[in-house]
Design brief:
234 residues, 29% helix, 8 helices, BirA Bifunctional Protein, domain 2, alpha/beta
């Protein structure tokens, strides 16, 4: 585990385009950083290898939803108002990456899982289900965060020669109709498989959950005497 300092950035409500830009800036900078942001407007993001004219992207554009490209992998992610975006940026030499970046999902995803476990909920990362070819949370690759038997969120990564960016999303609520329209899934299937943190942590405002998420991630990352997080609110 890492000792020393990690930069903590707490963003307010932001458009997804700005959130992605800040993630990419952190990746270029290479400083150990944890950043939490609240989504301020809906968007669809595509993984780096997805076609820009993928069916889900065309449906989203038809609904007036902005479509953006991530530099990380994975499939399509719908971002709704109040969703929480987290990111962890670490040097490639970090001890958690000794086994390779493909093994980093568990250690770097410990914070989000811990947040819900501390609330008394059964929370764990599990293998992706392979139920849908375009929707990241129901895709076939990587792992997803399962809470009380339903999928809450997921994560993706971008590795450069010097730095790893690990970022993910926790939906505020499941907009079954919107997800059904974008990903051509029955709304009842969406509602049955996915869950938002509003339902899991009833009454907790997004800004409070964002602060708790930041504490959980930093707590999972930073240990040892003298370890600290340096806040930088934006």
């Amino acid at each position: 585990m890492v000792s020393g300092s990690v930069r903590l950035q707490l963003d307010g409500a932001s458009p997804v385009e700005r959130i992605l830009a800040r993630d990419e800036a952190a990746l270029r900078g290479g400083t150990p950083t944890v950043r939490i942001a609240r989504v301020g407007a809906e968007a669809l993001t595509l993984g780096v290898s997805q076609a820009i004219d993928a069916p889900c992207a065309e449906r989203a554009r038809g609904l007036g939803i902005p479509v953006l490209r991530r530099t990380s992998g994975g499939l399509g992610v719908y971002h709704g108002l109040g969703d929480l975006s987290w990111s962890v940026t670490l040097p490639r030499s970090d001890p958690r990456l000794e086994k390779g970046f493909r093994c980093a999902y568990g250690p770097l995803g410990e914070g989000p899982a811990r947040l819900f476990a501390d609330a008394g909920l059964n929370s764990k990362w599990v293998p992706a289900t392979g139920k849908h070819p375009e929707l990241c949370f129901l895709g076939a690759r990587g792992e997803v965060l399962e809470v009380e038997g339903r999928i809450l969120g997921g994560a993706a990564q971008h590795l450069t020669s010097t730095t790893l960016l690990h970022h993910g999303i926790l939906p505020y609520r499941v907009d079954a109709e919107r997800l059904s329209a974008v990903f051509a899934l029955p709304a009842e299937e969406v509602a049955g498989r996915l869950v938002g943190y509003e339902e899991l942590l009833p009454g907790a405002p997004p800004e409070v959950v964002a602060s708790s998420l930041a504490s959980a991630i930093v707590g999972a990352l930073v240990v040892g005497e003298g370890a600290r997080a340096t806040p930088a609110e934006i």
